[in-house]
């Protein structure tokens, strides 16, 4: 079933699945190709700006924070590790009430209640109290949380919420009733027995191809004993059944506990700490299972390859990001595989996928001078068919902020030239910001077909900024997938848009940008073109083909 929505809230036209059979211009195929898609990595196309998709001009943004109804402040009470207090928190994005637009949950610290911004068509109503998410410990007591994550964890078709715990505080799991009301179901879920001191960020993906979403975590600041690797609670297997959440830590049995180095020789807290920051799932070697890309501080970033039998092995590639913070995973060069952007205080890294689980650092990309980098995302902000990069930054060191080299870092907006290089357009796009940026979310919040940005900052202001993209008449198509239960949001699916000689490849994911994540919607810029061909490779390997899709609409596509 395909539902077509014109941008700006036009009426819905429902079409049947298998459109080719009814003359509607589409088809579906039941050919199986493995757990995460297709017949392997799609055929590469040249990583140069093509005649059909030339790199486009920059766009501009408006600070619509107040107009959208967003009012945010953030902070922790005394006693929290001062380093953690400077970067924890975050936002989760997704459609919690299934009304077609993107809502946002913000973890606010333990001084004030959390925030849930329910989208009303580009403006928001704060509804955490109504939804049951304002306080997580008691009627008026909030926990210390980070890395909020939306995902359908029990396969009932709506987005649940998972919150990481800090300073030994509890993790929390809230079940959605389908209307955007939540109930605490942490007890007996397995997460009630979590022991990690700090859970900073999380990602979701079906690493074992059993159909449900497993949880990958980063635990910066958690002590480890390298002599007793044991269970590090990095990877949790989903064993849930309808109406009963159940998760099991499997870092030891999958080999991850031994592959992630926790005996690092340096680190601000000393040796033998977990310094992981931003986890992500992606099939980077084209073998149709989900590998792990883990960003870590103090030279600990790792690429772990899925062996296809429930275990992982280390890639021969060693990232040289030195102090990785945030991350983005996407096909920036339109060659059919997934590249990896890592923000770092030692210079950002853009790792270009070479296939087979290896990467090459693209030193000529122009994205390396990014200050003290944090949250990052790939998105096509000017709808030209090439993924750009939004990256925030900043750090205050010591009691005198003016002495910090990074206190006035300017947010970066790296625009893709279509030739493997990027140019910073933050100032010209009016999105430059010097506040202490941490988490970012990149989504089409106002349903006009272009990608907006939400920025969360740390103390001293702890503010949020909603940057509304002012791109005129975005020539794009938005794809929203609905998969079979239990993976009802089709996480892990591959979506490709072909326009003449260029194929854009996206992965439906819930990966950490750093303490925050985007929704699962996929927005394809079409440049000067008005139509293209769409191919969907579902998580079970079956395919749906829509040979002729037009710009200016949202396609809601259900798995046959």
What does it look like?
It is a single chain. The protein contains four helices and 40 strands. It has 560 residues and is mostly beta strands. It folds into two domains: 61-469, 7 Propeller (Methylamine Dehydrogenase, Chain H), CATH 2.130.10.10; 478-558, no CATH class. The strands form ten sheets. It has a five-stranded mixed beta sheet, with no helix packed on it. A five-stranded antiparallel beta sheet has the order 3-39-38-35-36, with no helix packed on it.
CATH H-level homologous superfamily name of the largest domain: YVTN repeat-like/Quinoprotein amine dehydrogenase
Strand order of the largest sheet: 2-1-40-34-37
Structural Rg? 21 Å
Structurally, the number of domains stands at 2
* Percent strand: 35-45%
Q: What's the CATH class label of the largest domain?
A: Mainly Beta
Give a brief outline of the structure.
The chain has 560 residues and is an all-beta fold.
List key phrases describing it:
560 residues, mainly beta, Methylamine Dehydrogenase, Chain H, 2 domains, 5-stranded mixed sheet, 5-stranded antiparallel sheet, 4 helices, 40 strands
Task: Please render the helix and strand layout as text.
Layout: E1 2-6, E2 12-15, E3 27-29, E4 61-63, H1 82-85, E5 90-94, E6 103-107, E7 115-119, E8 124-126, H2 128-131, E9 145-151, E10 160-165, E11 172-176, E12 182-184, E13 201-205, E14 214-218, E15 222-223, E16 235-238, E17 247-249, H3 251-254, H4 256-259, E18 273-274, E19 276-282, E20 291-296, E21 302-306, E22 312-314, E23 324-330, E24 339-344, E25 349-355, E26 358-361, E27 373-379, E28 388-393, E29 412-416, E30 422-424, E31 437-443, E32 452-457, E33 464-469, E34 476-482, E35 494-499, E36 502-507, E37 522-525, E38 531-537, E39 543-550, E40 553-558
Parallel strand pairs: 34-40
Antiparallel strand pairs: 1-2, 1-40, 3-39, 4-33, 5-6, 6-7, 7-8, 9-10, 10-11, 11-12, 13-14, 14-16, 15-18, 16-17, 19-20, 20-21, 21-22, 23-24, 24-25, 25-26, 27-28, 28-29, 29-30, 31-32, 32-33, 34-37, 35-36, 35-38, 38-39
């Amino acid at each position: 079933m395909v539902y077509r929505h014109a941008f700006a809230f036009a009426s819905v036209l429902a079409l049947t699945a298998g459109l080719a059979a009814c003359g509607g211009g589409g088809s579906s195929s039941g050919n199986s190709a493995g757990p995460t898609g297709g017949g392997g990595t799609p055929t590469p196309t040249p990583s140069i700006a093509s005649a059909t998709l030339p790199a486009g001009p920059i766009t501009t943004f408006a600070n619509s924070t107040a107009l959208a109804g967003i009012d945010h402040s953030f902070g922790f009470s005394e006693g929290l590790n001062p380093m953690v207090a400077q970067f924890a928190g975050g936002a989760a994005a997704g459609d919690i009430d299934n009304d077609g637009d993107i809502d946002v949950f913000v973890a606010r610290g333990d001084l004030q209640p959390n925030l849930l911004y329910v989208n009303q068509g580009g403006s928001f109503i704060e509804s955490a109290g109504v939804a049951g998410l304002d306080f997580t410990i008691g009627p008026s007591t909030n926990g210390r949380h980070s890395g909020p994550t939306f995902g359908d964890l029990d396969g009932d078709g709506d987005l649940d919420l998972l919150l990481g715990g800090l300073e030994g505080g509890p993790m929390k799991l809230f079940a959605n009733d389908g209307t955007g009301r939540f109930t605490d179901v942490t007890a007996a879920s397995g997460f009630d027995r979590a022991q990690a001191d700090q859970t900073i960020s999380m990602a979701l993906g079906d690493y074992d191809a059993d159909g449900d979403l497993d949880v990958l975590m980063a635990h910066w600041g958690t002590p480890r004993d390298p002599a007793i690797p044991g269970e590090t609670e990095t990877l949790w297997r989903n064993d849930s059944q309808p109406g009963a959440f159940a998760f099991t830590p499997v870092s030891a049995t999958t080999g991850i506990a031994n592959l992630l180095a926790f005996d690092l020789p340096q680190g601000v807290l000393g040796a033998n700490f977990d310094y992981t920051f931003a986890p992500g799932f992606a099939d980077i070697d084209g073998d149709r299972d989900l590998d792990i890309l883990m960003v870590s501080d103090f030279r600990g970033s790792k690429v772990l390859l899925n062996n296809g039998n429930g275990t992982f092995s280390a890639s021969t590639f060693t990232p040289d990001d030195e102090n990785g913070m945030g991350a983005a995973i996407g096909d920036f060069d339109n060659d059919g595989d997934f590249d990896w952007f890592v923000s770092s205080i030692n210079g950002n890294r853009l790792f270009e996928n070479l296939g087979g689980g290896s990467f090459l650092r693209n030193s000529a990309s122009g994205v390396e001078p990014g200050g003290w980098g944090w949250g990052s995302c790939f998105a096509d902000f000017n709808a030209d068919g090439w993924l750009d990069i939004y990256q925030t930054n900043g750090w205050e060191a010591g009691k005198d902020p003016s002495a910090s080299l990074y206190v006035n870092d300017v947010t970066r907006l790296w625009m893709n030239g279509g030739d493997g290089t990027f140019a910073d357009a933050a100032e010209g796009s009016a999105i430059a910001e010097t506040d202490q940026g941490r988490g970012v979310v990149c989504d089409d919040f106002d349903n006009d077909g272009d990608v907006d940005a939400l920025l969360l900052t740390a103390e001293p202001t702890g503010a949020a900024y909603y940057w509304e993209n002012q791109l005129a008449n975005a020539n794009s198509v938005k794809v929203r997938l609905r998969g079979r239960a239990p993976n009802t949001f089709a996480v892990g699916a591959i979506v490709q848009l072909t326009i003449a000689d260029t194929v854009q490849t996206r992965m439906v994911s819930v990966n950490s940008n750093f303490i925050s994540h985007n929704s699962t919607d996929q927005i394809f810029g079409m440049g000067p073109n008005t139509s293209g061909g769409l191919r969907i490779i579902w998580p079970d390997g079956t395919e749906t083909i829509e040979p002729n899709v037009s710009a200016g609409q949202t396609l809601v596509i259900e798995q046959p």
